[in-house]
Design a protein that fits this description.
Elements: E1 2-10, H1 14-23, E2 29-32, E3 49-50, H2 59-69, H3 76-95, E4 102-104, E5 110-112, E6 114-115, E7 125-126, H4 132-145, E8 150-153, E9 156-163, E10 173-180, E11 191-201, H5 222-230, E12 234-235, E13 240-247, H6 259-263, E14 267-269, H7 290-304, E15 309-312, H8 320-324, H9 326-334, E16 344-353, E17 356-358, E18 370-372, E19 377-378, H10 391-405, H11 432-448, H12 455-478, H13 483-504, E20 528-531, E21 534-538
Parallel strand pairs: 1-2, 1-11, 2-8, 11-18, 17-19
Antiparallel strand pairs: 3-7, 4-5, 6-7, 9-10, 10-11, 12-17, 12-20, 13-16, 14-15, 15-16, 20-21
Helix pairs in contact: 1-4, 1-10, 2-3, 3-10, 5-13, 11-12, 11-13, 12-13
Length: 540
């Protein structure tokens, strides 16, 4: 079955929906999302959105903080345009109905209540309590559902983007093959051929490539894997940010404890003696950038043999925690932890991918017709380490810029391409292969390619991933596709790319720390790039 549109968006987080709303002013939009429209990384973002919104702050300060966190790899032009566009993007969210927290300024006026987070030199994080992403996603989804020019295909998943080169034409993206997930019940799947003048990857990150992650199940690196298979350039995959503070509890599934808790005075302590340890690792102490905090926690856990560390905010006055962090407080209470009276057990977990599909200043990839925005993209904003609360900002800025750039697209007739062919595939009676490989892949990535790496561990990971990919490929071509199989295939590709990029960077920088190359080499302050058929290398 063929579906046509002007703009095809793969993903329904802040980047994809921002783009969809802007692009709907000039054409028809189809948004494809694997589960419900609200289910995205955006929906789980707690902290907020960084923007210069106070007279005591400045664009130069936000730029300086972003570049400092990025460890020498931020692209200066990208940082400046994102920072300067941030206030306008916050205003647009408010126009769409997003409710940010406000506070009295002492003269009876309610100004935006701005948080301070690690790595920031000023209070500049607009937020909605400690569930900003949920509030932003609510407003965007409501606006999208009310727009007659936007069609949302929930419970649909892109299998691969369509490039005309595959059918003897030019290297141009013309859409995607999309699986109707609801049609899969052990029989032949229903696959749509969606043709578009522009295809936009907005599929988010890839936290599920690791055993422990703060990301929801949808974060399986689909856009990056599809772009790589299509021949697009990918960059900086070695820079995976581990959030320092994920709730440690046997029944808690990847619950993030926001950076803002430390921003508002939370202190990290060793569990064996209660001593605060961050000042021993960085002058900023508990407000150090995330990569340093995550490595410090990892170091203290390994040194003491502890399973976790404590995050302590019990010194704050009564009612402070419940008011500032109502969702975190309620979630901890659900697991028997009163964070107002006792410290929270926390561990690091995979959180955000700073690399991705390389783009220009409007979101174009190296394949004509294919665009990438949000966490799936590598724009150069984050460099080797993302500054807290710059992620939602990036999604909005590039979603807006991409849509504006597409106003100039020619409306040529859409090409004709073959329908999806299932070939000789049949029904599988060996689904255990998918679950086994899924678990093994994520565990080996955690153990070998985690917060601290080594050449030996990376080589082991490389060999095992190659074997797993052989098994996955054999299964993929033999049996009918399912969402689980597609996600497994994609995280295996992402794992391969992370290892390739990590092996090519013989230094420690930002989020990439290797015990064999512990120093930062100024001569290596270059992006790592990789394409299908071309080994990873530092850009010349």
């Amino acid at each position: 079955m063929a579906v046509t549109c002007d703009f095809l968006v793969l993903g329904s987080g802040i980047a994809g929906l921002t783009f969809a709303l802007e692009a709907a002013k000039i054409g028809d939009v189809v948004v494809v999302t694997k589960r419900a429209a609200e289910e995205s990384n955006t929906n789980y973002a707690q902290g907020g959105i960084a923007a210069v919104l106070a007279d005591t702050d400045s664009f130069d300060a936000h730029i300086k903080d972003t570049v400092a966190a990025g460890a020498g790899l931020c692209h200066d032009r990208v940082v400046e345009l994102c920072v300067r566009d941030a206030p306008a993007r916050i205003a647009e969210l408010q126009r769409l109905g997003t409710r940010f927290d406000r506070a009295e300024d002492g003269e009876g006026h309610a100004e935006l209540d701005l948080h301070l987070e690690g790595g920031h030199s000023a209070r500049r994080v607009a937020h909605s309590a400690d569930a900003t992403g949920r509030e932003v996603e609510r407003a965007l989804v409501e606006a999208v559902r009310a727009n007659p020019r936007i069609r949302v295909l929930e419970e649909h998943m892109a299998i691969d983007v369509i490039t005309l080169a595959k059918y003897g034409g030019p290297e141009v993206c013309a859409g995607a093959y999309v699986l109707d997930v609801g049609s899969v019940n052990g029989g032949k799947p229903n696959v749509l051929t969606v043709l578009a003048r522009a295809t936009v990857l907005a599929s988010g990150g890839a936290g599920k490539v690791y055993l422990y992650t703060t990301n929801p199940d949808v974060a399986s690196g689909d856009g990056i894997a599809m772009a790589y298979r299509a021949g697009a350039e990918i960059a900086n995959m070695e820079f995976y940010q581990f959030h320092p503070t994920c709730l440690f509890h046997p029944k808690a599934k990847s619950f993030l404890v926001s950076e803002a808790v430390r921003g508002e005075g939370g202190i990290l302590r060793r569990p064996n003696d209660g001593v605060a340890f961050m000042k021993q690792h960085h002058p900023l102490g508990d407000l150090a950038p995330r990569d340093i905090v995550a490595r410090a926690i990892d170091f203290e856990m390994k040194r003491t043999g502890a399973e976790h560390v404590w995050l302590d905010i019990t010194h704050k006055p009564p009612g402070f925690v419940e008011k500032h962090f109502p969702n975190i407080y309620a979630e901890c209470k659900r697991f028997g932890i009163d964070m107002a009276k006792e410290p929270i057990p926390v561990v690091p977990a995979a959180h955000y991918l700073c690399g991705g599909v390389t783009t220009d200043l409007e979101g174009r990839t190296t394949i004509p017709g294919l665009w990438a925005i949000g966490e799936v993209a590598c724009t150069g904003l984050h460099g080797a380490n993302r500054l807290a609360s710059n992620s939602l900002l990036e999604g909005m800025v590039f979603g807006h810029r991409a849509a504006q750039a597409m106003a100039a697209l020619r409306k040529d007739p859409l090409p004709s391409v073959p329908e999806w062919d299932t070939g000789q595939a049949g029904t599988s009676e060996e689904a255990v292969v998918v679950t086994q490989n899924w678990d093994e892949l994520r565990r080996l990535m955690w153990n070998y390619v985690g917060i601290v790496r080594s050449d030996k561990r990376l080589r082991r990971a490389e060999r095992r991933i190659a074997l797993l990919q052989e098994e996955i490929a054999e299964y993929y071509w033999k049996y009918f596709i399912t969402r689980d199989l597609l996600e497994l295939r994609n995280i295996a590709t992402v794992a391969q790319l992370i290892v390739e990029c990590a092996m090519s960077r013989r230094e420690s920088r930002g989020l990439h720390y290797t015990s064999d190359w512990p120093d930062t080499d100024p001569k290596l302050a270059r992006d790592t790039v990789v394409k299908r058929g071309v080994p990873a290398r530092l850009r010349a």
